[in-house]
Amino acid sequence: MPIRNRNAYAFLAPYLLVFATFWIWPIISSFLISFQNTRVNPWKFSFSVNWGRLVGDPAFYNALYNTLIILVIQVPVMITIATVMAVLLNSPLLKARPLFRFAFFAPVVVGEVAYAAVFRLMFSFDFGIVNKLITLVGLPAVSWFDNANAAMALVIIAVTWRWAGYNAIIILAGLQSIPDDVYEAATLDRVSKSQQFFHITLPLLKPIILFCVILSVIGTMQLFTEPFLITNRGGPGGGTETLGLLLYREGFRSLNFGYASAVAYTMAALAVAISLLNLWIGREPK
């Protein structure tokens, strides 16, 4: 090996060592733990005790169902809202655009506990502003924390509120990379603004939108904060328990690390599979 290459690897060695210690080894170790019975002391190898339980565990299927419901509903809604927000933020007619960009991005930097507490107050049955507005239009107040469907809707609203602006900023960067010449030529050809959006903007934004979708899929498969803090650990009755909450409950409350590792690898496999499916659907035709 040339001395120049040896010097390069010598400079990389501290990072590679830290990466192997805190990333590679935990990944391998948790995979091995998923094949062990961690309910006995000392732990013993048993393939079926965790993976066999996973196949027939109603709690796992409930968490998987809830996670997929959030994924199927929340991600398309959020990406649609983010795209609309990005187009509005990119409009030359909008004044004080930097202020609006900061305002839309701000939810990402708000503390999780703080915004969860605000959402719990806003959606309170007795004195929440949301129920006040609902009753003003003649509809009955909604018990957001005692009804599984309402609690699921609340989680979807909270996640969308927090991450729509983040995705809008990413899509806005993609919008600003589209040359103005494309729109000028379309305008000269008397192409309407709506046609420009659907036939020029969206096709050129396809890779950016696909990137946001994949990020959102990975984030949703790990969803933990909103159901834990807002709907009181996946309540009511497990109605909003996600795979992330199930992993937490098994690993850090029941101390069943083997089963928690099996759940974690199932989450990772599902995230990879759904992301690959999105890449296949969004591939460019040959």
Automatic annotation (TrEMBL):
Residues of the ABC transmembrane type-1 domain: 64-278
GO CC aspect terms: plasma membrane
One of the Pfam families matching this protein, by short name: BPD_transp_1
CDD domains membership: TM_PBP2
Superkingdom of the organism of origin: Bacteria
GO BP terms: transmembrane transport
Keywords on record: Cell membrane, Membrane, Transmembrane, Transmembrane helix, Transport
SUPFAM superfamilies, per database record: MetI-like
PANTHER family: ABC TRANSPORTER PERMEASE PROTEIN, INNER MEMBRANE ABC TRANSPORTER PERMEASE PROTEIN YCJO
Family per similarity comment: Belongs to the binding-protein-dependent transport system permease family.
Designated name of the protein: Carbohydrate ABC transporter membrane protein 1, CUT1 family
Species of origin: Rhizobium tibeticum
Name of the encoding gene: lacF_8
